[in-house]
Design a protein that fits this description.
By secondary structure, the protein is of the alpha+beta class. It is built from six helices and 21 strands. The protein has helices spanning about 10-40, 90-100, 150-160, 215-220, 250-260, 310-325, and strands at about 50, 75-80, 80-85, 100-105, 110-115, 120-125, 135-145, 165-170, 175-180, 185-195, 200, 205, 210, 235-245, 260-265, 270-275, 280-285, 300-310, 330, 335-340, 345-350. Strands 2, 3, 4, 5, 6, 18, 19, 20 and 21 form a nine-stranded mixed β-sheet that branches. An eight-stranded mixed β-sheet has the order 8-9-10-7-14-17-16-15. It has a two-stranded antiparallel ribbon with strand order 1-13. A hairpin with a 5-residue loop joins strand 20 (about 335-340) and strand 21.
Length: about 350
């Protein structure tokens, strides 16, 4: 027998401990699910995303948008999301303990958290006021996990450390998602993608929905026996970012026409954008913010990072920004531009 293999009695103790942990977490989630729905998370179960591909997009034989000369490269991805926060220590604790992120880099009032060497969230201390729910800004940062077991282990952490911040869950057909808010109200989606072979496309539009998803059943089905939460090894990236804006036509002009994303789905009050045939890298909605003007505070979203493959891709975006008359700043390996509401978008080339 390998000396690292537990004895029969040790194994029984581990199983009993894990069972108690699961039962406690399931009770926590079950107790707060109804509260979350009553509090306003029910839109996840009633919204319908009806597709509407970009007018200039070309599609392949499966209806998936193809890379175009005036668009973003197919290899575009999302990078670290920056948040400006007032309750710095409390918010950092949430991302470390409830989401399971590790500190990758830190200075006074500035910390970057992630998994492995992948940065996911950067927190910067701010003394400005908190935004109101009707202000433009961040709707949620969506953290993508590689498999259902890893997501289930993370849900254990979140349910044990921050059950009161749980907001709801949904089966989106392309993905399975669970929603939380951090202590300052910044939305956090924890999700796993279904296989791309299961995604349904129609002339550049991806089929998405918001069907009920039982968090208890998900954890019971996918939590692996060794995953007690704290000790589970995890990997994750920023899969997409969802923003609150004041007007969808202006959002389409900035994110699709100028930056070069494809519009791959439309819902009542929302647009979903993609590059390279992903279900979405960005989304914008006006569910609470229709008619909103420029942001009045920096607290909340600091900046969104869009990762481009090379300097040529950055130059192409710069040219489109110039033609559209959108001001931007040049930074190391990229550019930074703000949408009409002051949400900052960093478009950065991968390091050599």
């Amino acid at each position: 027998m390998n000396r690292n293999t537990p004895s029969h009695s040790q194994a029984q103790t581990q199983i009993q401990t894990q069972a108690r942990t699961r039962n406690r977490v399931l009770a926590i989630i079950g107790g707060i699910l109804l509260v979350a729905l009553i509090a306003g998370a029910a839109w996840w179960f009633t919204s319908r995303a009806a597709g509407a591909g970009g007018a200039e997009s070309q599609v392949d034989a499966n209806g998936v948008p193809m890379e175009r000369a005036d668009g973003l490269p197919a290899s575009t991805a999302m990078g670290v999301n920056e948040l400006r926060v007032r309750a710095f220590d409390e918010v950092e604790t949430f991302y470390r303990e409830a989401i399971g992120l590790a500190v990758l880099d830190e200075a006074e009032g500035d910390v970057t958290l992630g998994l492995g060497d992948e940065p996911i969230i950067r927190l910067v201390r701010s003394e400005e006021p908190l935004p109101s729910p009707t202000d433009a800004g961040l709707f949620h940062t969506a953290i993508l996990f590689p498999d259902q077991a890893t997501l289930a282990a993370t849900l254990l952490l979140a349910a044990e450390h921050a059950p009161e911040l749980y907001q709801g869950s949904a089966d989106h057909l392309v993905s399975e998602a669970f929603y939380f808010a951090d202590p300052e109200g910044n939305g956090v989606e924890l999700y796993v993608d279904r296989s791309r072979a299961e995604w349904q496309w129609d002339n550049g539009s991806v089929q998405m929905d918001s069907l009920p998803l039982d968090p208890n059943a998900f954890i019971e089905e996918h939590l692996e026996p060794a995953d007690s939460g704290e000790g589970a090894e995890r990997a994750a990236i920023v899969g997409h970012v969802h923003l609150k804006v004041g007007d969808l036509s202006q959002a389409r002009k900035f994110y699709a026409d100028t930056l070069g994303f494809d519009v791959v789905s439309e819902d009542e009050g929302a647009l979903f954008y993609s590059a390279g045939g992903y279900h979405h890298h960005l989304a914008t909605n006006t569910w609470q913010t229709a008619g909103a003007g420029p942001r009045s505070t920096e607290v909340g979203l600091g900046s969104v990072t869009v990762a481009l493959p090379d300097a040529a891709a950055v130059d192409a975006v710069s040219e489109r920004l110039e033609r559209a008359g959108v001001a931007f700043d040049r930074v190391e390996r990229g550019v930074v531009a703000a949408d009409p509401w002051g949400n900052k978008i960093r478009l950065i080339a991968a390091a050599d």
